[in-house]
Amino acid sequence: MTGMKEKEKENALNEIRILASLNDDYIIKFKEAFYDNLSGYLCIVMEFASGGDLMRIINQNLKAKTRVK
Questions:
Q1: Is residue 35 in some structural domain?
Q2: What are the residues whose beta carbons fall under 8 Å from the beta carbon of 51, sequence distance 6 or more?
């Protein structure tokens, strides 16, 4: 977040608030967020996606010519 404009920082914090408020079976859950002073990074911890990411699932279905219901 170092070097970011104030508005960009506000937007990042708002995004964290939105992530924290989401509660749906089809959305990966937000766990926590913290600022790492050493690196200057804003870290967002999310639930582990044991089934992989959406791109992998899309590519699998394209290759198999199937659709997910």
A1: yes
A2: 57
Dihedral, 22, 9, 48, 64 alpha carbons, nearest 10: 80
| Predicted structure pTM score | 0.70
Number of folded domains in the chain?
Answer: 1
Model confidence over 3-17: pLDDT tens digits?
889 999 999 999 999
Residue 48 and residue 30: Cα distance in Å, rounded? 10
Domain that residue 41 falls in: 6-64
State residue 38's pLDDT score: 92
The beta strand positions in the chain, using DSSP E, are: 30-36, 41-46
